């Protein structure tokens, strides 16, 4: 890695396999983190030209990511939000993609965000906590019943947050497999084991299937509204007018997909981190009061959103570089969350880290709507798991998702001994 050029380092950000390896190893020697460290040091705002991708600026320092997030009047979400192949960008530019709230800019974004905001307030989280803790206990019980060995990702981590989201939306558990498959196909398009295919047409087909699913849900909740989040979205009004079917479906998509995939990645990555740092596992078990800071450290450590793109609305300066109107910048959250200027010993997993100014939930006006729910779920899971955990070890090689957007572990084989629940 010492011979890597800045050009090679920049192209690493557009390599799904590099992100898969980062999830497995998560140390300074991994190809992704070696590339990110090189750019943070030598060229923090770096112009990238990678085969198959439209060019972009890679933004690798914590301060610069914050600046772009803060200047949302200059750096806009539209038209290019996610780093993907150029043919996918072309498809979306031609009207081949449906927009979610994450694609919107002010003032449209502010109005759309308000629809679901009340469902994720501290008061709402207090009302939901009993249900979340019940589901956490249920899934740790399930883990205990698997005979002391399982793939923690497949059999535990993906199931718990998805059940929470289905519960919030008022959907039955019979929809679990369908929603899990569509989410994986959406976020794992670059992964041969998860994606439906890498072509723009196949990516579009996944999105169309998701939107068709939620169009049916919208019709049902408009005809028979209940007290769930799905009904609130289906019957929402913005500036006095109801959302159209595409706008409503787009809201469901971002809640149902981003609301569970990133959390499951953090839970699995958190278990992996504790396995690799047994001193921190002992520390957390001995002092449960560290759980809130441990949750923040897990989010920093995993940084499941690999990055978002923003597009400059006008010529502007960023750390001495001129970003021209129409050029895209990639906000690399895993790089920012290892910035040596912000985090002391950034490759040390520290359950008591404070302060912890991680960007795992983003920042600014686009700060993750479901951050409070994610924190509650992660905390509830580990507060249920750790008191019962007598032993845990790797039972095989972990594997990461090949992606340039949302990632983490796709396999974590573990062997363990769990005590009885309450």
UniProtKB/TrEMBL annotation:
- The record lists the organism as Actinomadura harenae
GO BP, sorted A to Z: cholesterol catabolic process
Q: Where is this region: Disordered?
A: 1-26
Hey, which family's this protein in?
Answer: Belongs to the cytochrome P450 family.
Organism lineage string? Bacteria, Bacillati, Actinomycetota, Actinomycetes, Streptosporangiales
Q: Name one GO molecular function term.
A: cholest-4-en-3-one 26-monooxygenase activity
Q: What is this protein called?
A: Cytochrome P450
Classification via InterPro entries: Cyt_P450, Cyt_P450_B, Cyt_P450_CS, Cyt_P450_sf
Alphabetized SUPFAM superfamilies for the sequence = Cytochrome P450 (SSF48264)
Task: Report the superkingdom from the record.
Answer: Bacteria
Q: Which UniProt keywords apply?
A: Heme, Iron, Metal-binding, Monooxygenase, Oxidoreductase
